[in-house]
Amino acid sequence: MNDTVWSYRDSEWSEDRDLVGYEVEADGGSIGKVDGASTETAAQWLVVDTGFWIFGKKRVIPAGVVVGMDHEAKRVIISMSKDQVKAAPDYEESEWAREDTRAKHADYYRQWAES
Q1: Is this structure's pTM higher than 0.85?
Q2: CB 90 within 8 A of CB 48
Q3: 40 — phi, psi (to 5°)?
Q4: Hey, what domains does the chain have and what are their CATH numbers?
Q5: How confident is the prediction along the chain (115 residues), in pLDDT tens digits per residue?
Q6: What does the alpha-carbon distance between residue 36 and residue 25 come to, in Å, rounded to a whole number?
Q7: If you write DSSP's letter for every residue of 10-42 in order, what string do you get?
Q8: Closest by CA position to 41, among listed 14, 12, 18
């Protein structure tokens, strides 16, 4: 699964940096807080709890759409709008190990990872 959508572009990120609890900012405001994060070398992503904004749904945010981090403010900034995140595929933990599920997410997010 070696793909730019799954790799951080921000040099401020490191494997020992715990992003759980960070606020996630999209164009248009906050989309929620980081609930989990992958530190796998080949595939890095954030699981974001959107709270009541999208009826309690979670979203996987691939590392490639992260464009900035403010560790003092505990904030991650992504290259997407709130509407684009809202339209993203739902995150279902039980389905996440399936390659076709991850591919569907990568296909959706790729345009913002490459911008």
Answers
A1: yes
A2: no
A3: -60, 140
A4: 4-113 (3.90.50.10)
A5: 457 899 888 666 777 788 999 999 999 999 999 999 997 777 899 999 998 877 778 999 999 999 999 999 999 999 999 999 999 999 999 999 999 999 999 999 999 997 6
A6: 16
A7: -TT--TT---TT-EEEEETEEEEEEEEE---SS
A8: 14
